[in-house]
Fold this sequence. Notes:
The chain is mainly alpha-helical and 155 residues long. The protein has helices spanning 24-34, 39-47, 53-66, 73-78, 84-100, 102-110, 114-130; strands at residues 8-13, 16-21. It has seven helices and two strands.
Amino acid sequence: MANKYRGEIAATLDxxxxxxxxxxxxxxELETAFGTDDMLSLANRFGAGRISAGxxxxxxxxxxxxxxxxxxxxxxxxxxxxxxxxxxxxxxARLLAATFGGPAAAVAVDATSAAGAAVAPAVAVMAKAxxxxxxxxxxFLAQPPQAPRPFPGPR
Length: 155
């Protein structure tokens, strides 16, 4: 079973259930595959809204290997998803949302191919639903410190 607090998602490919996770090793693999220098560049690549079918194969393959499954990218390319191309886009969006948060995944989905673009609103909502809630940053010492009050203990 997928543990969302560890960045894992569940997916069905070729009728079998898998747990996918973009571990540190999987992210390093994607950095090399996409020619990026760091994880921020990788997140920005997907946040820019450019994703191809080949990108989906690499992301899903890295997620499968990060989840403990020994599956090569060429085997991933031959797999069938539950909802065709939109199912693969959904898997990638949920995996990116679990790893980087909702906005990067939602933007990536919005600019996908025609199959992904047709389901982008639904997938963006799903990605947002799967993204961890992050509180808004609070300024340190938003209010000036107050002088300590005397101890109201027994007399």
